[in-house]
Amino acid sequence: MVKFRFLSVAVLTALSLSAEAANAASPLAGEAGAPPDCPYGYYDHAPYSCAPYGYYGPEWFAKGAFIGAGPWFHGPKTFHGHVDNHFDEHHGYKGPAPSPGDKPEPGKPLDKIAHFNGNEVRDGRGHQSAQLKH
Q: How far apart are CA 6 and CA 110, in angstroms?
């Protein structure tokens, strides 16, 4: 009986420590949940705010739906898509951006963005590609 109690305490302690370690190791602990509902996609870096129209190129959308970025990315590991970092808040953009829950404007198609000028290639996980692909 004493061995069983000792074993139970040891198992509970190990489970508790492994759960704490898993939470501490995850940089998104407490951030991940439902992805933001943004009409033109959301930035691939925390706090995952809505990106403005023209930030993402058409390859980021499938049948009008954003394929994702950040912890909710739904593309393959080899995915690389164009972005126009002039619309990135990390590059100084302070212009208008939609709010979560907004709907796309009818005159702004996602599959053929007029005058899109992608100047950076990203992988959807917050990383810039080594070279710009055209």
A: 61
